[in-house]
Design goal:
- The chain folds into 2 domains: 106 residues, Elongation Factor Tu (Ef-tu), domain 3 (Beta Barrel), CATH 2.40.30; 60 residues, Roll (SH3 type barrels), CATH 2.30.30.
- The strands form 3 sheets. A 6-stranded antiparallel beta barrel has the order 2-3-6-5-4-7. A 6-stranded mixed sheet has the order 12-11-10-9-14-13, with no helix packed on it.
- It is elongated and about 60 Å long.
- A hairpin with a 6-residue loop joins strand 10 and strand 11.
- It has 191 residues and is mostly beta strands.
- The protein is 5% helix and 41% strand.
Length: 191
């Protein structure tokens, strides 16, 4: 069982995904625009996706809370960020209007994952049950560690969170249609 992939980096926890309804979001965050760069209508974009290679010139992205469509005209690496430009923005003043806006892509445009891998937004909120059917709670958060992710399960009736390593010995099955994650508790996990 592979861990989850997060199209929205940890710094996005609690940030809007761009969806107005529960379930699968319509938009996923890929970046945040900061300050204009140079005199040709470029802007610095902080990258918050695990898949920056999917961003290409000519691609349609959506900017701001109202998801205004913008076509990427160019992009290039800059330190840990990207310098991007959008069609129709030719001056620092033009592009400066997009400062502090979030950049989204449609969920439908996200890259496919290998079998057994899931995006965080797909599994957050799943009901977590043991193999014998005993309900433990729901998946409330995911900690990304160096070795493997750790799933945080919030018991339904409240109480102490349960920390589960995202390994195949513990996570036995994920059923997105049923909204469940079946787990096997190893000795000491509830201690």
């Amino acid at each position: 069982m592979s861990g989850a992939k997060d199209p929205m980096a940890d710094s996005n926890r609690g940030q809007p995904t761009g969806s107005s309804s529960t379930g699968e979001p319509e938009f996923l965050v890929v970046g945040r625009l900061h300050r204009p760069h140079g005199v040709r209508g470029e802007i610095v974009m902080e990258v918050v996706t695990d898949f920056p290679e999917r961003l290409k010139p000519g691609m349609l992205v959506f900017v701001g809370e109202d998801h205004q469509p913008q076509q990427l005209a160019s992009l290039r690496p800059h330190d840990l960020a990207l310098i991007v430009s959008f069609s129709g923005f030719n001056t620092p003043e033009d592009i400066g209007r997009l400062r502090n806006h979030t950049v989204y892509v449609r969920t439908a445009d996200r890259p496919a994952l290998a079998e057994g891998e899931y995006y965080h937004h797909q599994i957050l909120g799943l009901k977590v049950i043991e193999e014998d059917g005993n309900a433990l709670g729901f998946l409330s958060d995911i900690l990304e560690t160096g070795a493997n992710d750790v799933y945080i399960v919030q018991p339904e009736g409240g109480g102490r969170e349960i920390l589960l390593p995202a390994i195949s010995d513990v996570v036995r099955e994920i059923d997105l249609e049923q909204g469940t994650m079946t787990v096997r508790l190893l000795p000491g996990l509830l201690a």
